[in-house]
């Protein structure tokens, strides 16, 4: 998250003579990164998401005071104290009744102020808000935005009379699904269910807390009394509601990161001071402070030896204490064990590594010795992954004219249904950026088809992709399976041939492994876009293992989807060496007329099983329904004669006719 901070505003909290360049340099070395300085006046600062304490003017000033001191530049965080809130003796207005119907509320502070004057904000406030990208309105509205940026805790202003006219109750609860509400900018929303909302006595939503106010309770030009309000809610609930409704306000981005609820009192006092000073408002009620569970930081213990092992240097106990004290941590060292209790505004310090990181960055990463690690790196390769094989497959297919593509993991409803699985069998994104990207895919094929369809000018187009699909698991993350898929608008035989050539290159057939294409003609079709499907089976030692599927689609495209893990298991790095047979071979060609739906792969397998002296059967050519096959006959002990081949040839013809209705062209 990036924030903008004018230099003069920063120095209202930071006592130092450091130049702007010094602040940029040393902050970037050891803390939030100052990416640039606009007009030599405004710092553009990147703050990591776990450091919500630094997402404000005062938070950055706190960091700068510690870091500049270590760099040898005098710096100190200025004290900021505000007067305790006291009710004006001449004013007396009751607080709304606040009802809690959820346990997700960490703290609520509220006070009623009346006699509000509608005046312009001071020029310095306007200028600062405009510089940081916030539109300036009037003081009544600008004060809450100003405080949030300065101190880092969001706050909100309600029109007091609008709340009281709705029954005078604020019911804090988890929303049911389908309730409508309108935010203060006029945008209409509907609850998704589970988000925390404020409701009136009649059930009307009057605020989306920690995120954005609603139109029915926001201040306007007629506001005379206000309810100044601060809440601290469960961060996960805030995040879910913000993302679910796509409302990414500054308040939401801070509150979803566990803003310190202990900061609320200070923010409330500062806000009351500004409303009194700028709007002439008077406190008309006692301060309401609901804080059911005070946050108690957990201590972290670690050995001095652990610090040394991580940093590569031995820090003195006094130096460790000094650094951690400067970070507002409580520290004790006893028997070489450092016990650290972080402040409540540092929820990111929870384990020993966090403490070591703080020591390293304040000491200065640049001050640590530059030394390569000793010993061997631990390498635990995934047995189901073979990057060399993946590269070989990609390059082989590219040489065959295929193009590698990358499609989205999130797909539309249409593509999800095209995969052959019902929508409720897909994982659905709760808050998609686009309706076209809603479901996690369960097949790559529909996306590849879409790509070819979107390129009608390409008469021939073949694409492939190697990527994950996501199969849902109950009460768990999805099972990610790596698939290798290809789709082509070329003829089925060509695509199938390309795949067989790939299998041959992977030496699948040279290790006594046999490919079986189990063609399920017009039955058991899973994908609605397919008209014919077949399973790829690899047979080894009388066992069959499915490695993928082949499909002829309704648009006459050919699609293949293979499980990469299974493909790796049957692939070999080198071919299997077989001694050359010293006897002569006989090569003959036979042509058969086949029916339209004859499975040629099964026919070739049947031919090979006729006799062990048939060493190879290969499809040579196709003309209409006539298929020409080449047969290689060879005996390993003697040279075969034409007479010895004759009975084998007859058996080939018989098997073709009896089992596949294949009619021989010509005579034998």
Can you put this structure into words, describing what you see?
The chain has 668 residues and is an alpha+beta fold. The chain contains 19 helices and 33 strands. A hairpin with a 5-residue loop joins strand 12 and strand 13. Helix 2 crosses helix 3 (57-70) and helix 5 (139-151) runs antiparallel to helix 9. The longest helix has 19 residues, at 642-660. The termini are far apart.
Based on the model shown, name its key terms:
seven-stranded mixed sheet; alpha+beta; 668 residues; Phenylalanyl-tRNA Synthetase, Chain B, domain 3; 28% strand; Phenylalanyl-tRNA Synthetase, Chain B, domain 1
In short:
The chain is α+β, with helices and mostly antiparallel strands. The strands form 9 sheets. It has a 7-stranded mixed β-sheet. Strands 6-9-12-13-14 form a 5-stranded mixed β-sheet. Helix 2 crosses helix 3 (about 55-70) and helix 5 packs antiparallel against helix 9.
Number of helices: 19
Total domains:
5
Write down how many β-strands occur, each being a DSSP E stretch of 2 or more residues.
33
Helix content: 25-40%
Layout of helices and strands:
Elements: E1 2-6, H1 7-11, E2 14-16, H2 20-30, E3 33-38, E4 42-46, H3 57-70, E5 75-77, E6 97-100, E7 105-114, H4 123-131, H5 139-151, E8 156-159, H6 160-164, E9 169-174, E10 180-182, E11 188-190, E12 196-199, E13 205-208, E14 212-213, E15 225-233, H7 235-245, H8 250-255, H9 264-279, E16 282-283, E17 288-290, E18 300-303, H10 304-311, H11 317-326, E19 330-334, E20 337-341, H12 352-363, H13 387-399, E21 403-404, E22 410-411, H14 413-418, E23 439-440, H15 445-453, E24 462-473, E25 476-488, H16 492-505, E26 514-520, E27 530-540, E28 543-553, E29 558-563, H17 564-570, E30 586-593, H18 600-608, E31 614-623, E32 626-633, H19 642-660, E33 663-664
